[in-house]
Amino acid sequence: MKYYAGLDVSVKETSICIVDQTGKICREVKVTSHPDDLIVVLKDPAWNMERIGLEAGPLSQWLFEGLARAGLPVICIETRHTKAFLKAQPNKSDRNDARGIAQMMRVHLYRAVHVKTLTSQKRRALLTARKLLQDKAIAIENDLRGLLRNFGLKVGVVGSAKFEARIRELVARTLDLVEIVEPLLDARRKLREHFATLHRKLLMIARDDEVCRLLMTIPGVGPVVAVAYTATIDIPQRFKNSKAVGPILGLTHQSGESHRVGRVSLCGDGMMRTLLYDAAQVLLNRVAKWSWLKAWAMSVAKRRGLQKAMVALARRLAVIMHRMWSDGTEFCWSREKLPAGA
């Protein structure tokens, strides 16, 4: 007889429910949220496991890797789809959620999601940490501007390199303010130093990675966008065609019979979507060399406006990057030799 298991994972404990092919509950248990403890239950010879459902979440990548390495047929399932299925249950609890996931696996009513490789997970962690340090440093700078403005001291337009000197210049004659801003300036300096360290590490990854170097031949695409894209897509072969990348990143909007590529659905990876939008801005506003891609975006801007052109260009960049990665070809500046599907 075949058996199916559902795992409802929390930080400390995981609820396990095992059902047979008729839907009868055979075992329910709670164990520590660790791969070894889960394996002890699921590897029991009494159960001939057909599928094991694990909802995508903060611990899912770690648990999935441990269970898959043990040879268990684990499947990571999509969160929103699971939530919609479990909403039909009258009572919300870990035990009932595990039961619902087990039944989903039994009747094959689930949507599997891709679990990224360890390399992509590490790159994603680097990007997240780098962005966190950058945001905190900018937050301190903005707070300093607001704090000094209360005393009529205006920082004005100044770059990050001269920001600290400008603050010291403004508060030089007020000892009380000096004592207040010094800790903030010290914290900002440390954040900027650690940010620079992580940024150098990211640049080294982009320099040594063949795919990143290939993607950076596209105008507007730099090391940060290239590394983030490879970490987000992970394995290009998991997409049937390049045009499927846009909806996955939330760069299309579809409602009824309308399908507008100049809008966003806000689904998918928010960081990657923002970086692609930034790359589109660079291509339109800073890249002087003309290309078919820039000409296409400018024509969209004339018809639909600059904002929609930016979104449409970000989507097209995602499609082109996927096609280049799949084919191993560099960016074509003219329309004579475009990648198929671009």
Describe this structure in words.
- The chain has 342 residues and is an alpha/beta fold.
- It is built from 13 helices and seven strands.
- The chain has helices spanning 35-42, 60-69, 79-86, 94-106, 118-149, 163-171, 175-208, 210-215, 223-233, 245-248, 270-285, 292-304, 306-327, and strands spanning 3-9, 13-20, 25-32, 49-55, 74-77, 253-255, 258-260.
- The strands form two sheets. A five-stranded mixed sheet has the order 3-2-1-4-5. Strands 6-7 form a two-stranded antiparallel sheet.
- A hairpin with a 2-residue loop joins strand 6 and strand 7.
- The longest helix is centred in the middle third of the chain and has 34 residues, at 175-208.
- Residues 254-259 have low confidence and may be disordered.
Helix-strand blueprint:
Blueprint: E1 3-9, E2 13-20, E3 25-32, H1 35-42, E4 49-55, H2 60-69, E5 74-77, H3 79-86, H4 94-106, H5 118-149, H6 163-171, H7 175-208, H8 210-215, H9 223-233, H10 245-248, E6 253-255, E7 258-260, H11 270-285, H12 292-304, H13 306-327
Parallel strand pairs: 1-4, 4-5
Antiparallel strand pairs: 1-2, 2-3, 6-7
Helix pairs in contact: 1-2, 5-7, 5-9, 6-7, 7-9, 9-11, 11-13, 12-13
Provide a short characterization of the protein structure.
The chain is built from 13 helices and seven strands. By secondary structure, the chain is an alpha/beta fold. The strands form two sheets. The protein has a five-stranded mixed β-sheet with strand order 3-2-1-4-5.
- 3D shape: globular
Count helical runs: 13
**CA gyration radius, whole angstroms:** 25 Å
In what range is the share of β-strand residues? 5-15%
Helix content: 40-55%
Distance between the termini: 49 Å
Order of helices and strands: EEEHEHEHHHHHHHHEEHHH
Instruction: Extract low-pLDDT stretches.
Output: 254-259
- The average pLDDT is 89
> What structural class is derived from the secondary structure elements?
alpha/beta
Largest sheet: 5 strands, mixed
Q: How are strands sequenced across the largest beta sheet? A: 3-2-1-4-5
Number of strands: 7
